[in-house]
Amino acid sequence: MKFNLNTIKSDLQNILRTIKFVFESDRRLCYVRLVLIVVQSILPLLSLILLKKLVDDITKTGVHHEGDLANIYFTIGLVCGVLLFTQISTVINNIVGEILGQKIIDYISSMLHKKSLELDLTYYDNPEYHDTFHRAQQEAAYRPIQILNSISDLIRNSISFIGVAIILADLSIFILLIMLLAGVPSLLIKLAKSKNYYNWNKENTSLYRMINYLSMLMTHRIYAKEIRIFNLGKYIQDKHNTIRKKLIDQITSLLSSQAKGDLVSSIFEVGALAVSIILLTNKFYTGSVTIGAFVMFFAAVRNANSFLNGILSNVTSIYRNKLFLNNLFEFIALQPLIKQADNAYILPKLKEGIRLENVSFHYEGSTKKVLDDISLKIKPGETILITGKNGAGKTTLINVLCRMYEASSGTISFDGINIKNIDIDSLHRNIGIIYQDYCKYDLTVTDNIRFGDIDGQHDITQVAEMSGANVFVNDFSKRYETLVGKYFKDGEELSTGQWQKIALARAFYGDSQIVILDEPTSSIDLETENNFFNQLNDQVKDKIVIIIGHKITGKIKADSYYHLQKGKLSKVSHQYVNANA
């Protein structure tokens, strides 16, 4: 084991942060837990003292000293009372611990969710982010409560050990020193074991994520059809089992190595206990202690060994959980790459519109330009169509315009205000969008549409009628309060086209000034598609509308037409549109 002051300081800070999380989850329960810890620490010492008194009283009294029996019965009552109080305090402590554990899980989960929502889209394109999140998500739910329990037990065991140590020191300081020295190898071995397991676990994060992913392929409904139609089940299951076998082999090897260390530490601990009992027995035979004292000291030796082992286990547990909590703190430390500007502007009612000037973009870690020197101006009330092949950069252009990604170079402005100086929430509230890979929320129809402006109070039926969703929604017995999707009980199954109609209604729900439609009718029937584009101009009025498509179609009546190819955007003439429509 290698230690340095900076590492120890960092570890202590993380442990203190964890304790702070625990207290912030429920301070009242934490204080109750502390009181119970102190009480449970004192009770074992009181039991030892009462045990000595009971044995000595019984030894002195004998069968013919009836007058002293009352004193013995009183002591027995005290012993039983202490045992009962110990049981009661244990029950209460378990209840408090369970409730506090649930509170901590909620608190940490909320923290993880908040951080995930803060981070921008760039992180989701990075495998290292997914490893970091996986480690934080897997460990954060229970590690803080384990640290709390370990610290609680450490305090309790330490108080009890100090009390027992005082009793043993009165008998023989050598017994105490032997037990303490025997604990040092055990502590070092356990700390090293925890460090090795943590490093192994961290190195294999990607494999664990792959296992989870393969398991999802075999169990999630979205993949069920293709898995069966292409007979992929056995292949994926074999792949899953192969990785699991590899991990199990590594775990077996790791545990075998750790078992050798545990055996060595056990030899030291048992040896110390044996020497202590021999010394105590000699004390008794030389008449240095009474039978009651012998019983008390014998119990003290056993308890001291138990408390010391508890302390070593508690320290090891704190260290082990601290290592894994580094994953949580590593995730919490992530900062959004897209920063909110100080004194950011609320997006005004657009008069001039949107201007892109020499905008380029490449993904982090890549020099290939997905967007290359794009310039574009769109005025309020104007509709433009941007076409291009798959992979041309159309969706990336949308993400940059919505500031999901930060442009690598160039500027984007709204009425002359740089996008970097606009309040991000304000910008997003003013954009109604349907992505090509739109989301399907297994909630009610109302929820699915209202998510377009969750704080708004608009007419859902109007946008549903425009998208064509009203046709099938009105056939449901609960209409707009119908649960859609098959993830939950009583959910209605929808076709791909029906899902797209709901997503289309979501894009138009609200008062957004900008509407972005990425392949908005790719899965919709011809009649609904024609009806939608016929109504589009009446619905958008003075809005900016950007439509993304693979090809030019005469159904879309746009003011300007553009073609995106290899990151380059070029304007297309009306003659070209008419020739290719």
Q: Any overview of this molecule?
A:
This protein has 581 residues and is an alpha/beta fold. It folds into two domains: 13-187 and 268-332, Up-down Bundle (ABC transporter transmembrane region fold), CATH 1.20.1560; 354-580, P-loop containing nucleotide triphosphate hydrolases (Rossmann fold, 3-Layer(aba) Sandwich). Helices cover 64% and strands 9% of the residues. It is built from 19 helices and ten strands. The strands form two sheets. The protein has a six-stranded mixed beta sheet, sandwiched between helices. Strands 2-1-4-5 form a four-stranded antiparallel beta sheet, with helices on one face. Strand 7 (514-518), helix 18 and strand 8 form a beta-alpha-beta unit. Helix 6 (143-171) packs antiparallel against helix 11 (291-332). The radius of gyration is 35 Å and the shape is elongated. The model has no long low-confidence stretch (mean pLDDT 79).
Helix count equals 19
Strand order of the largest sheet: 6-7-8-3-9-10
Which strand-content bin applies to the residues? 5-15%
Characterize the main sheet.
6 strands, mixed
Instruction: Tell me how many strands there are.
Output: 10
Key structural traits:
six-stranded mixed β-sheet, Rossmann fold, elongated, 581 residues, alpha/beta
Please sum up the structure shown:
With 581 residues, the protein is α/β, with parallel strands linked by helices.
Give me the secondary-structure topology.
Blueprint: H1 5-25, H2 27-61, H3 69-118, H4 121-124, H5 127-140, H6 143-171, H7 173-203, H8 205-219, H9 221-229, H10 233-285, H11 291-332, E1 354-361, E2 371-378, E3 383-387, H12 394-401, E4 409-414, E5 417-418, H13 424-429, E6 431-434, H14 445-450, H15 460-467, H16 470-473, H17 496-508, E7 514-518, H18 526-540, E8 544-549, E9 560-565, E10 568-572, H19 574-580
